[in-house]
Amino acid sequence: MVTDVELEVMSEVMRNPPHTKPMSIFARIVRIAIVAVVFAIALDGCRRKSPERPPPRRINTDSLLREQAKLDSIARVEAARAAAAAAAAAAAAAGPATSAPVSERERIALIATIYFDLDESVLTDEARTAVEAKAPVILRHPDMRIRIVGHTDSQGSDEYNLALGLRRAAETKRYLAALGVDEGRMEIVTFGEERPAVQGQTQEAYALNRRAEFEIISGG
Amino acid sequence: MSPRFLFLAACACLGALAPASDLRAQDTTATRPGVRLGLNYPRGSVPRVIVLPVDTTPGDSVRAIIHRDLENSDRVSPIPLDVVTLAGITPAPGQDPNYELFNKLGAAAIIQPRRAPNGGLRVALYDVGAKRRIEARDFPVATVPPVRDASIRDSITAEATLREKALRDSVTRVLRTRAAIMRRPPVRKVPRPRRFVVRDSLRRDSAATAYIRRGQNRWDEDRRDSVTLAISTAAERLIRADSAARVAAADNERMSIHRVSDEVESWITGKRGIAATRIAYVHNGMIRIVDSDGENDRAVTSRGTAMSPAWHPNGRRIVYSRMSNAGTQIEQLDLESGSARSMSPTGLNITPVFSQDGRSIVYSNGDESGTDLLMVSADAANGLMAPQRLTFGRGSDNNSPSFSPDGRQIAFISGRSRFPEVYTMDADGTNLQLLTPFIPGVRTYRTAPDWSPDGRTVAYEQQNGDFQVWMTNIRDKEPRRLTSEGENEGPSWAPDGRHLALSSNRGGSKQIWVLDTESGRFRQLTRNAGARLASWSPMLNLK
Fold it and tell me: Rounded to two decimals, what is the model's pTM?
């Protein structure tokens, strides 16, 4: 590549050609030597202009993930222990199966909405208690099928919220299954932040929108 | 040895390296192919320019479009001048501009668009400092046909009058013939003379026969009303089609002027502009598309709740997700024909993007064990091919993919570390790497990654109390915060790798804004409260 400056210099040379007076052999040798030195300096300069770039920084993804996995697994074991106890309680509360229609009290317990913390699909203690009240109702009515609908508040990525809503519904379904409800009787859906229960940009509205709703599809 | 001798020796070396042809024509002002001198302006500064009007009539839209495009470019600063001043300083055709005057106005360059003889634009760029023209080129410009409503109506009326007269004559002729046949005595040899006559000699008048068979034995003057109605209906339909064609032509005209702006920008700064692009976004459950200057905003989908638009690399197709009560589907829309095609299984299917070659679509499919990225063919023929699974999140969320410009890597968000973080991986799902470091157990939130067109950075949304847009350098993983006022979400890079479209509530309501990541300047793009999920198109070429 020839830069503009070099072009200018070259045209300057063409307009005022170097003197043509014959030179002594000594002068010629000196001139060649100088050319060589200039070249060497130029080459060295070029080398120095592009120093070694540091290699890309690599984050140790595996170790971070392993540490997180350990934390998660502790939480999972504790949850499983609690769920086993709750399942026994739910089975006891349900009693024998019945073909009687769902009573008003049962319906209220079943369709009660549960709420989540910000960016969480883990059930809170409160939500856990509410779900534990639902399980006996479903167990008592073997024909009943339900739909769990996950929602999120309007904060954060609208796209991620669709996935978060699904995770909330799935987590709820998993807990109901741990309480003894057959998985085939529950389906899950997400609407992300697209169908808020409460409009508004307040913390109260956000809290009321981070939820899972329950619908009876059939057998109710 | 004198310094002068050293200098000459160095020159000789350079001379030996350069091809001899480059030594010619250095002293001419004509532009030579391959060598560009460009505009002289202080490095690091934004050159100020004046865009002259095409003609001196007020309300000149070509000048207005170029002026605004350059303003939006953030690389060039056009000087706002009123119509009277502009008329005063515009040189007559064939004359050089008054460089001293422009210099006093503070302009480094002058852009003069004129109407070219072929109907396009002839655009010249003058260097005020060097006092010469440094570029000139002709550009094709799509022209908008004039309004033809009256002539459409006239020609339809004329045509209808002609046809009506023909029918009327025909009816008269049929009635006359029929009367003649009735007067003639029946002929024994031919069993059905009337039928024969009607079938054979009156074929040309079949319309008239039908008219008569409906029970009319004479020309019905009441029929005029229905004819008039038919004429006006036909005229309205044609006028509607004509005005739709004019709107499309106006779009193309604006686009062709945006291309002029982009080229002029490259004359001045060496970098092509991004005026000839569009931005897709979501408003009210519909995908809308708006030109880069905020004009020409229209909806391209109508039903359901559409989300997450993404452009095909050729700029003529988009892909998005559409939510209904039955689930959320991936849909492809051809922007020219308007035909949409659904192309995913039932269930939750979100955040689709085209691969860099446009042949595949990567999207996120969700079930009870979380969401994972899948790759399918974008072609209709291979639409039934089994999707290839790219992530194995083991119950976590893996979505919002964004391809690197070379198409070999994908940035996406994953919750495999419990909270959403940005990861990169090779396009086949291997070589997973974390881009945004975190401390295990500490809540973080990073979503909506978008890989920059220069491949160097990924922009994303991060929560630190409120939601803001950040970007991280791929090499050193050094994060940099880009926004602070209001809440700013869902960044999407412009093809220049310098501007970002994002949704922000800084103006009160949530709108799409354009951020210049170098100067930090913001400009509002949309005027639809609740606008979100912007996606910047590639450079749009002439059709």
Answer: 0.76
Cβ of B11 under 8 Å from any chain A Cβ? yes
Give residue B483's identity as a one-letter amino acid code: T
Distance from CA of B18 to the nearest CA of A (A): 7
**Residue B303: phi, psi to the nearest 5?**
-110, 160
Q: How many Cα neighbours within 13 Å face the side chain of A118?
A: 14
Interface test with B, best of A70, A159, A191 (most B CBs within 10 A): A159
Interface A-B, measured as beta-carbon pairs within 8 A, has a size of 159
CATH number at B277-307+370-536: 2.120.10.30
Closest CB to B368: pick one of A34, A35, A170.
A170
- Side-chain half-sphere exposure of B271, counting CA atoms within 13 A: 13
A 29-88 residues with CB < 8 A to B:
30-31, 34-35, 38-39, 42, 53-54, 56-59, 61, 64-65, 67-68, 71-72
For chain B, count helices (H), then strands (E): 8, 29
Nearest alpha carbon to residue B97 among B59, B36, B61, B51: B51
Is B84 near chain A, with CB under 8 Å? no
Partners of A166 on chain B (C-beta within 8 Å) are: 348, 366, 370-371
> 3.40.190.10, 3.30.1330.60, 3.90.1720.10, 3.40.50.720: which CATH number matches A114-220?
3.30.1330.60
Integer angstrom CA distances of residue B288 from B17, B292, B307, B332, B535: 55, 13, 11, 14, 10
Domain residue ranges of chain A, discontinuous segments joined by +: 114-220
3-state secondary structure of A128: helix
Which of B:277-306 have CB within 8 Å of A? 305
Residue of chain B whose Cα is closest to the Cα of A56 = B475
How many CB atoms are located within 10 Å of the residue B519 CB?
Answer: 11
pLDDT digits (tens, 9 = 90+) for B72-128: 999 999 999 888 888 888 888 778 899 999 999 999 999 999 888 887 889 999 999
Enter the ipTM. 0.74
Least Cα separation, residue B429 to chain A (angstroms): 15
Given a contact cutoff of 8 angstroms between Cβ atoms, the answer to whether B6 and A34 are in contact is yes
Cβ atoms of B503 and B531 within 8 Å: the answer is: yes
The string of pLDDT tens digits covering residues B223-279 is 666 777 877 888 888 888 888 888 888 888 889 999 999 999 999 988 999 999 999
Q: Which of A50, A67, A51 is nearest to A59 (CA)?
A: A67
Amino acid identity, position A97: A
Nearest CA in chain B to A186: B368
